[in-house]
Amino acid sequence: MIPKSLAFCVVTGIAASAILGIYLLQPNSKNIVYVHGTSITGYVEKNTYKIGQTIPIYLVNSGTTKIEFASNSPGILIRALDGTTFFTQTLSGLNLEPEQKHVFEWEQQKNDDSKILEGRYVVEIIAYDESGKKVDDSFTLDLLK
Fold first, then answer.
1. What global pTM score does this model have?
2. What domains can you pick out in the chain, each with its CATH number?
3. Other C-beta atoms within 10 Å of 115: how many?
C-alpha cells in the first residue's frame, strides 16, 4: 500500500511539471506590448527551427517614437549563449515609425558564410531613437537537426 502523502507528492509533482512544460513550450510572444516612449520588439514565429530553414525575424517599433538603425553598428546580432557572435547584420537606412514592422530573413549562415550548427542562440536587435539613445531587445531560438 502506498502512503497517502507519497501519492499526494507524486500527483502534485506531475501536475506541476505539466503546467511548467505547457508554459515553457509556448511560442515566442507575438503579443507585442506597446509602450509610451521608445521601444523595439523582436520575435520569430516559433521557438524551434530545423537546420537549413530560413528564419524570418520580425522587428517591430513597439514605442511611440521613430527609431532608426545605425549605419556603423549592427542592427541584428546572433550569438551563442556564451556570448560568441556568429552573425551580424547592419540595417543602415532602415527607419521604423511607431507600430511599423520589418522582416529580416536569416539563412542560418555565419559571418564567414559557413552554416551554423544546431544549438540555442540569442538574437539581439539594436536600434536608436531620434536622440541617439540605444534601444534593444533580445530573444532565444533553438536550431535542431
1. 0.77
2. 30-144 (2.60.40.1930)
3. 10
